[in-house]
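[retry 2/3] ATP-dependent (S)-NAD(P)H-hydrate dehydratase: previous attempt timed out, resubmitting with same input.
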Amino acid sequence: MLVKHSSSTVLRRQQFLVRTLCGSRTHLPKLIRATMSSKSEAADAESVLRTVTPSLDPKRHKGQAGKIAVIGGCREYTGAPYFAAISALKIGADLSHVFCTKDAAPVIKSYSPELIVHPVLEESYTISEEEKRKVEDKVIGEVDKWMERFDCLVIGPGLGRDPFLLECVSKIMLLAKKSNVPFVVDGDGLFLVTNSIDLVKSYPLAVLTPNVNEYKRLVQKVLNCEVDEENAGDQLRSLAKQIGGVTILRKGKTDLISNGEIVKSVSIYGSPRRCGGQGDILSGGVAVFLSWAQQLKSDPERNFSPSESPAILGCIAASGLLRKAAALAFTKHKRSTLTSDIIECLGESLEDICPAS
Ligand SMILES: NC(=O)C1=CN([C@@H]2O[C@H](COP(=O)(O)OP(=O)(O)OC[C@H]3O[C@@H](n4cnc5c(N)ncnc54)[C@H](O)[C@@H]3O)[C@@H](O)[C@H]2O)[C@@H](O)CC1
Ligand SMILES: Nc1ncnc2c1ncn2[C@@H]1O[C@H](COP(=O)(O)OP(=O)(O)OP(=O)(O)O)[C@@H](O)[C@H]1O
Ligand SMILES: [Mg+2]
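[retry 2/3] ATP-dependent (S)-NAD(P)H-hydrate dehydratase: success.
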């Protein structure tokens, strides 16, 4: 039988072996030294999922389990905002909104009647130079009407990179910060933030979820160096610290999470399929679990330690659930596993850990 060990067990064993064999740290082989100097603590994702997922209490009213808004969706991309928004609902949020361009809205609406879709964003090609200021005010006004009702935003899935649209989205980020609404920045939202890091700097309610390319660009821009795989945990911690303590979830074979203080890892076995859209599920999931963890934090009977910040807990829970659902979808669909198949497995995977009754 194949026995799997957690990375911390493996690390402890490596350290024990190395101490026993070499006696001194200076003699350690390079790879083991790198692992030791780049410590991250393996998170118990299932336990976090159990802690943050609320029970289905008949006394609660619509909205109390979370109101999420995705800012994304343009002419090219309609799948990404849909995946993020529908995942939020499938995990257990009560309401899921999408703010997208006028072109994308009918398409996203046609995927699902469950989503509330606002066709408010504009790309440069639809407006003249003279209209820009008026249109920007209108876009901001439309989003502002709703802002205080949201528990968390997901900014970026399928947003595209149109300069005028991104300018409007940077104003939406300022609105969210003014209202203390947490936000998850993903996809093209990270393109925007990497070029204007002040948009998120020192905002404790910001979570960045970069994939391999997005992370590389962030490291180059903020730390002015290349990605250092041998010291992955330490580098992530430095990056988060440099951006003023925002939370970063670095996606990959192992998901690494840091807020500049601690580094946690999630490496539950997921799926070998790398089809597009899995990061979008993750961003919707982080938004929901972060909102639930925020609710727990406001409970005076709960004593939160700094390592249990809602953002960190949200990232751990979403990563664990996505990986579990991806593994389940893969057992059913093998090579033809798609993002929609993984979304269909979110409920069953969460049920396995936190039964509804
Ligand atoms: N169905 C959809 O509408 C989808 C839209 N998406 C959106 O597409 C936009 C661009 O996102 P991308 O993730 O493509 O941007 P990236 O900058 O991550 O990827 C750009 C290119 O890098 C390559 N790449 C990706 N992962 C890599 C890896 N591990 N190693 C080496 N090369 C790699 C890809 O093949 C792609 O051509 C975002 O707005 C995103 O949200 C994606 O979320 C995927 C699904
Ligand atoms: N090599 C890998 N092995 C196992 N799981 C992985 C691997 N790479 C990524 N994942 C999982 O897939 C999730 C999505 O990561 P990915 O890098 O595909 O994001 P992305 O490129 O932003 O996706 P999207 O196509 O939605 O934009 C991660 O959180 C992680 O759990
Ligand atoms: Mg992505």
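[retry 2/3] ATP-dependent (S)-NAD(P)H-hydrate dehydratase: DSSP finds 14 helices and ten strands in the chain.
[retry 2/3] clearing retry counter.
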